[in-house]
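Re: the 163-residue chain
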Amino acid sequence: MASDSSRDRLPFEPAKKRKKDKAPKSAPAADSGADRSESAKPSPTPKNAAKPSASPSGQPQKAPIPEAVSRRMITRMALFSGTPTSLGVLSLVGSYFIIQKEWFPLPSIAVLLVSSGLFGLGVLGLSYGLLSASWDEADPGSKLGWREFQTNFGRMRQAWKKE
């Protein structure tokens, strides 16, 4: 089932690979002083002119990430990143009190390794929180999100291979 859902397109996933427009821009021609004053005036545009549905680069606009999916991603990122980051801060504060009260000798390298490790887990938690959220609006996903992580990481790898 996971391989089947990895082939489905998401509503906010781009339809095609972008192709860059490599057409050279024409340089403006040299004008005389009289021509500049006339060209400075804005040209009149009709009130009922149709607005283009594509972006200025000519690409169709992408649909935004649905609100439910966005909230799910933010919640998971806060949980998986906030917990180790706050533990890293608490380890620094705790080691300060241990050293100040002289409860036992605490090597500086131990404080550095523990706090750096916890801050590193916080950074990894951002990525895991984003990828472990279910990108389907109707499916809330599992508690830890391992199945969703595998599906979303597979989608991301496929997108990298296409480029």
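The mean pLDDT is 77.
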